[in-house]
Amino acid sequence: MDSSEPWLLASLFGGAFLDSLPGPCLFVFGEVFFVLAGTLLHDTGSLWPVVAVFAGALSADQIGYGLGARVAVPVRRLVLATARRRAAYRRAQRGLQRRTLVFVAISRLLGPVAWITPALAGSLRISRLRFSLGSLIGVFVGVGQFVLYGWLLAAGAVAAGVNLGGFLADHAGLMLLVGNAVVLVGLVSWRWSASRRARLQ
Question: Which of 2, 58, 135, 191 is at a distance of 20 to 30 A from 107, taking alpha carbons?
């Protein structure tokens, strides 16, 4: 497989982008694309797959920041709707304002927190330069770890005589579909159980 093929690079970029963008991130598992980039790096020696996933994640962070800055008032109204949200918002606000680089970088390692941090930073008018530096560090560590896992998996597979990169590339769509189905079932089950508990109270 040619790791510089435009469709492959576009898929890697798109997967990383949607994984980090509020909304689509609920249905896209970026880890599949990050691991695939690592296996392709090992199998082909090309850095383009890694560049594609890094660029996708960084671009999504910038889009999230811009959206937060443009819709700051609605974001705050949504976040401040309940006492629990207000407390969490104040903690996040203090963290972003006092330790922007550390807060943004670490949020990349905390799953759902990574999805809302860019928009929250934009709504708080945090310095874009400081946010971008924190995003760069966070993406390097957060995405880079899965790229490394992919590389190590490919190295082990080669030792065992298995073309892991080709397998993941050929079945990435199926893996994404199954992963999304699992998440969807989980969300529906959670909502159903929450509504049932509310009715019983």
Answer: 191
